[in-house]
Design goal:
171 residues, 2 domains
Length: 171
């Protein structure tokens, strides 16, 4: 869908407008379609690869560089004065969304934390443990989501400051 949106409005993205304006247009119109609901996605390695290739496709199409021209990705990124940051944006949105959910005292918070158990208890399941929604943040940021003594408040406010502040070097 996002590629179709890019191709439908190809003229402003590939025209002689200012580079910064074209980049903002791509991020505003194309990425918003491609990343709709991305804060709830589980990012597997295959998905990350597809998202990075989509990002490079956007920059290549914007600069009218065909893939048969054998131009390296690093050169394309230098040409558009950009870094690979689509995954960083998704992780930032995910951190904001999870922070929003965990501040509330509702059913979705309990589901996110894994506090609600199903009726059937499965023991002795083979294979790797199933990934949960908070696992992505725990792995990448080193957080532990434990309740404080007041019940609805979490242990440290510095934890939230680190959660809200995402740096590209952390990923």
């Amino acid at each position: 869908m996002a590629k179709a949106a890019f191709n439908k409005k190809r003229t402003p993205f590939t025209s002689t407008l200012d580079l910064e304006l074209r980049k903002k247009l791509v991020k505003c119109y194309v990425w918003s379609i491609a990343l709709h609901g991305a804060e709830t996605w589980m990012l597997w390695a295959v998905d990350q690869k597809h998202l990075e290739s989509f990002e490079m496709w956007c920059w290549r199409s914007m600069e009218k560089i065909n893939w048969t021209d054998h131009v390296r990705n690093e050169y394309v990124l230098l040409r558009v004065k950009e870094e690979r940051n689509i995954l960083h944006e998704i992780r930032k949105w995910k951190a904001n969304w999870i922070g929003h959910i965990l501040r509330r005292n509702c059913l979705l918070q309990r589901v996110t934390e894994g506090k609600i158990q199903g009726w059937i208890e499965v023991t002795g399941r083979q294979g790797r443990r199933r990934r949960e929604l908070l696992d992505d943040l725990k792995e990448r940021r080193g957080f532990s989501f434990e309740r404080g003594s007041s019940g609805s408040q979490y242990v440290e406010s510095s934890l939230w400051k680190r959660l809200w502040t995402c740096h590209k070097t952390d990923y």
